[in-house]
Amino acid sequence: MTMQIGVIGCGLMGVDHIRTLTAAVSGARVAAVCDADENRAGQAASEAGSARVYSDPFALIDDTSVDAVVIASADETHEGFVLACVKTGKPVLCEKPLATTSEACWQVVEAEMLGGRPLVQVGFMRRFDPSYLEMKRMLDSGQIGEAVMLHSVHRNADYPPALPASALVTGTGVHDIDVARWLLGQEIVSATVHTPRRSALVRPDFQDTQFLVLRTDNGVLVDVEIFVSARYGYDVRGELVGESGSIQLQPPSTVTTRYEGLAGQPVARDFRPRFQDAYRNELQAWVAASASGEVCGATAWDGYAAAAVAEACLHSLATGTTTPVEVGTQPPLYSRPAA
Ligand code: ISE
Questions:
Q1: What's the confidence (pLDDT) of residue 139?
Q2: For residues 142 and 184, is the Cβ–Cβ distance under 8 A?
Q3: CA 329, CA 98: separation in Å to the nearest integer?
Q4: Whole-structure pTM value
Q5: H or E element, residue 69
C-alpha cells in the first residue's frame, strides 16, 4: 500500500520533506500540500509531480484520501493542526516543537490518551542521524562506562528575523534537550542559563549566545551552547563523556581539501545537508510505522517533556536562577522500547 501524505507548510522544511518523500522514501506519495500562500503551495506541489493544493490546513486534514500528515508550518500553529489530526485518527509527523508551550503539548498528550493510542511523532530528527545513533549504541554497550557529562554545540549561520527571542530555546536548543533525554534515557530536573557578553554583531532584540546547563535525575551534567548568528555556517558538535572514555560526533564530510594554503572541510549554510540522512531515515521510519499502525521516534510525551525543559530555560534566562523541571511520570500509553 502506498501511503497518501498531506504536507502542511511549504517553507524551507516543508519543501525539503516533500522532496525527500518524493525522491527517497518508499511506500509513500505526497498527495496534497497546503500553505496560506497559494503560489508557494503550487510550487511545492510541482516538486511532488502532482498534488492537490489547499490553503486551508483543516480541509487537507479532513481530506479522506489523505492517510497521514506532515506538519511543517509555523511553530505556533502546530498545536491546532496536531489536535485535528489526532481527532480524525491520522498519523502525524509534526516538526519540532510539538507546540510552543508545555501546556499546549500536554493537550496533545491528553487527546492521545482519550483516543487510546499514540498517533504523533515529533520531528526530532537527530534520533535518526547515523552519528547520534552510533553515539547511543556505544554508550548503551557500556564501553565507556556510565555517562558523566554531555557537551553540545548548536550554531546556525543566521536566524529568520520573524522568529521570537524565545525560539532560540524552544525551536533550536530544544533539539539538544531532546538528544540529552533520549541518549541518556534520563529526565532533566533543573536548568540554568548563563549568558556571555552580547556580541555587537547579533540581533539587538535577543540574547545570542546562551549557555544552558542542565542536570539529569541521575546527576549527569549537560551543557549546550546556542549561537544562532555564527555567520560562518551551520555547526553541530557533541561529545559524551563517560567514566572510562568519551564519544565525539564527527562532521559528516568525507574529505579534507588542501587549497591555497588552507586545509579543511566545507561548512554548510544551514541544517539540511548536515541532517539529510537523518531526515530521510526519519520520514522512512515514520511511513513504515504509520502503515503498520505504529509510532516510532519521539512521541507527544517527548515533545511535552522537551517543552517543559525549554520553559525552565526561559525562566532561568529571565530570572538568573536555577529552575527546577518537573515533568511527572510518563503515561503508560507511551511505554515502548525507545527509538
Ligand atoms: C532550526 O530552527 C531548525 O528547525 C533545525 O531543525 C535545526 O537544526 C536548526 O539548528 C534550528 O535553528
A1: 98
A2: no
A3: 19
A4: 0.96
A5: strand 68-71
